[in-house]
């Protein structure tokens, strides 16, 4: 059998969102830095390692948009130069929230 390269394809496109976000983990608030966002989730830098499937609440302002406070679950956590690079998936976004994130990712909002 030949060697094949496998790769991961995201369900939703993402866009850079480098700004301050808040993360609530088990009643403890941690300021973090956003990396990118998409309709399905958010990537951010944190100082602490987080276990996979940990339930969190992320709070942020979408650039030129509304404030979001959303439940999410940790799906990826890797060591990085700044601490840990963490990916989370949103639990239950409302249709209006999905639409606003989709608009930002598509470039209709800066």
Can you describe this structure?
It is built from 1 helix and 7 strands, in the order βββββββα. It has a single domain, classed as Beta Barrel (Thrombin, subunit H), CATH 2.40.10.220. Strands 2-3-4-7-6-5 form a 6-stranded antiparallel β-barrel. The chain is mainly β and 110 residues long. It is 10% helix and 50% strand.
List descriptors:
single chain, 110 residues, mainly beta, Thrombin, subunit H, six-stranded antiparallel β-barrel, 1 helix, globular, disordered N terminus
Find the CATH topology: Thrombin, subunit H
CATH class membership: Mainly Beta
- Would you report the number of β strands? 7
Strand ordering within the main sheet: 2-3-4-7-6-5
Structural class: mainly beta
Major beta-sheet overview: 6 strands, antiparallel, barrel
Shape verdict? globular
Q: Please tell me how large the radius of gyration is.
A: 14 Å
Distance between the termini: 47 Å
Kindly summarize this structure in a few lines:
The protein has a single domain (14-95), classed as Beta Barrel (Thrombin, subunit H), CATH 2.40.10.220. The protein is built from one helix and seven strands.
Topology diagram in text:
Blueprint: E1 14-16, E2 20-25, E3 28-38, E4 41-46, E5 55-61, E6 67-80, E7 83-90, H1 95-105
Antiparallel strand pairs: 1-3, 2-3, 2-5, 3-4, 4-7, 5-6, 6-7
């Amino acid at each position: 059998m030949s060697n094949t390269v496998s790769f991961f394809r995201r369900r939703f496109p993402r866009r850079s969102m480098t700004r301050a976000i808040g993360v609530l983990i088990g009643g403890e608030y941690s300021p973090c830095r956003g990396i990118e966002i998409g309709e399905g989730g958010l990537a951010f830098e944190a100082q602490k390692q987080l276990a996979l499937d940990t339930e969190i609440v992320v709070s942020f302002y979408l650039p030129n948009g509304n404030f979001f406070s959303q439940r999410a679950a940790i799906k990826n956590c890797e060591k990085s130069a700044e601490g840990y690079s963490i990916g989370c998936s949103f639990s239950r976004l409302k249709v209006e929230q999905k639409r606003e994130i989709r608009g930002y990712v598509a470039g209709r909002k800066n």
